[in-house]
């Protein structure tokens, strides 16, 4: 399974953390990031994501909406395992359920720090191999199973230029 882990774009302040909205910079970051990811998928003859799972907080919902629009409307669903306070084990349990249900192809997750970077480190089995995902950053993995060291990094891209890092 191809797995893309996407951190939401830059967000502004709000009375509650869950209500923070993307700034114009954040919207631009996400738009550039998803276009770079889409171009890489095409050049690598890789399917675009068919399912986008996201934390239901405002900024991640907005990020998922931008991604979904740019990718010609794949299915999108909120996922409680991706909200702040949840851990890598929660995300891996959700991935296990999806894989057992026959989910194949390309899956995209939208979440928050520190979870996104902890998940990348865990799946690669090599903490610190890649720097933490900045707002709007993404990591693309080839996932054998949702466990430690069960993934291979295929692309790592950060704003503002989204050049590929491996």
Task: Characterize the structure shown.
With 166 residues, the protein is of the alpha/beta class. It has one domain (2-165): 3-Layer(aba) Sandwich (Rossmann fold). The protein has four helices and seven strands. A seven-stranded mixed β-sheet has the order 3-2-4-1-5-6-7, with helices on both faces. Helix 2 links the parallel strand 2 and strand 3 (75-78). Helix 1 crosses helix 2.
Give a short synopsis of this structure.
By secondary structure, the protein is α/β, with parallel strands linked by helices. About 35% of the residues lie in helices and about 20% in strands. The protein contains 4 helices and 7 strands.
Q: What key phrases describe this protein's structure?
A:
His_PPase_superfam, alpha/beta, Phosphohistidine phosphatase SixA, 21% strand, 166 residues, globular, 7 strands, Rossmann fold, 7-stranded mixed β-sheet, 4 helices
Q: What layout of secondary structure does this protein have?
A:
Blueprint: E1 2-7, H1 24-43, E2 51-54, H2 58-70, E3 75-78, H3 88-100, E4 106-111, H4 115-124, E5 138-143, E6 151-157, E7 164-165
Parallel strand pairs: 1-4, 2-3, 2-4
Antiparallel strand pairs: 1-5, 5-6, 6-7
Helix pairs in contact: 1-2
Protein name: Phosphohistidine phosphatase SixA
InterPro entries: His_PPase_superfam
